Amino acid sequence: MTMRRPLVALVSAVVAAGLVGGALARGDALPPTKKKGVLTVALGLGNPGFSEGTIAHPTGFSVDASKAIAKRMGLKVRYIDYPFARIFVPEPKPYDAAFQFVTITPQRKRLVEFADYEIASSQGVLVAKDITGPMTLARLRTLQVCAKEVTTGDSYVQNTLRPKGLVLEYPDASEALLAVAASICDAFVFDLPALIAAKREAPDRYGDVVGRVGSTEYYGPVLPKGSKLLPAMNKAIKSLRREGVFKKLAARHFGSALTSTPAIR
């Protein structure tokens, strides 16, 4: 017995050292973020269904998706508010990734890094309460259309739809929604999921989401150019998408209208 006790003690010490070493290795292997062990996420508050509430207590698809991705990467998450239009400005960023349902485009890829996509959708059209009846592209062109600045919705309105009147551009989706509610705008062209969420939250404030326009768009997190975090984030997103996590989150926040809304022709 006296001979075995030192051996047991030695084995225990080796196992303990191995556990400590393993913990350190896991810590050292964490993805490279601004703050070790923490994913700093930029949100744009005031976007229905995607990011609402306060930075201390945000809600929405972007919030839930970022939490799922951070957890899969072994990270905690911290949120900051950051203007959408500044995401593409070439300057130092205070975040690791922006989760602002940004459409992946070749032009934007020249300025930032895009992680893999979470969900796909398109632009939609929300009309004011006094706009009724069937909607066609020809009719839409005759209406007072509004859009959010520096978005693919704005680009579609200006370059493809080309309304007959002046397009009203707003810096935030919340301002454009107020204009639709007051019938300053007849129709707001914006991301379909956000318009569906806005209508669901305040059904008596607006008319209908009358349809979708444009091509399919893919939404992905935005990272600063050259970010070393990209491979780890892509791995997490792909695994979550295979498991159907993002589809479940989209169904929770946007409902069946995300896939059943018809195209305007």
Structure write-up:
- The chain is an alpha/beta fold and 265 residues long.
- It has 2 domains: 38-120 and 219-260, D-Maltodextrin-Binding Protein, domain 2 (3-Layer(aba) Sandwich); 122-216, D-Maltodextrin-Binding Protein, domain 2.
- Helices cover 39% and strands 23% of the residues.
- The chain contains 10 helices and 11 strands.
- Strands 1, 4, 5, 6, 7, 8, 9, 10 and 11 form a 9-stranded mixed beta sheet that branches.
- Helix 5 links the parallel strand 8 and strand 9 (168-170).
- It starts with a helix and ends in a 5-residue tail after the last helix.
- The model is unreliable at 1-27 (pLDDT under 50).
Keywords:
single chain; 11 strands; disordered N terminus; 23% strand; two-stranded antiparallel sheet; D-Maltodextrin-Binding Protein, domain 2; 2 domains; alpha/beta; 9-stranded mixed sheet; 265 residues; globular; 10 helices
Task: Describe the secondary-structure layout.
Elements: H1 4-28, E1 38-43, E2 52-53, E3 58-59, H2 61-72, E4 76-81, E5 97-103, H3 106-109, E6 113-114, E7 119-127, H4 137-142, E8 145-148, H5 152-161, E9 168-170, H6 173-181, E10 187-191, H7 192-201, E11 209-223, H8 230-242, H9 245-254, H10 257-260
Parallel strand pairs: 1-4, 1-5, 8-9, 8-10
Antiparallel strand pairs: 2-3, 5-11, 6-11, 7-10, 7-11
Short description:
With 265 residues, this protein is of the alpha/beta class.
Could you name the CATH topology of the largest domain? D-Maltodextrin-Binding Protein, domain 2
| Gross geometry | globular
Uncertain residue segments: 1-27
* Biggest sheet descriptor: 9 strands, mixed
Assign the CATH class of the largest domain. Alpha Beta
**What fraction, in percent, of the residue positions are helical?**
25-40%
Structural class determined from secondary elements: alpha/beta
Nearest-integer average pLDDT: 90
- Can you tell me the CATH architecture of the largest domain? 3-Layer(aba) Sandwich
CATH superfamily grouping of the largest domain: Periplasmic binding protein-like II
Q: Termini separation (Å)?
A: 87 Å
Instruction: Report the β-strand fraction as a percent range.
Output: 15-25%
Number of domains: 2
Oligomer designation: single chain
Would you report the number of β strands?
11
Q: Could you spell the SSE succession in H and E letters?
A: HEEEHEEHEEHEHEHEHEHHH
Q: Note the total helix count.
A: 10
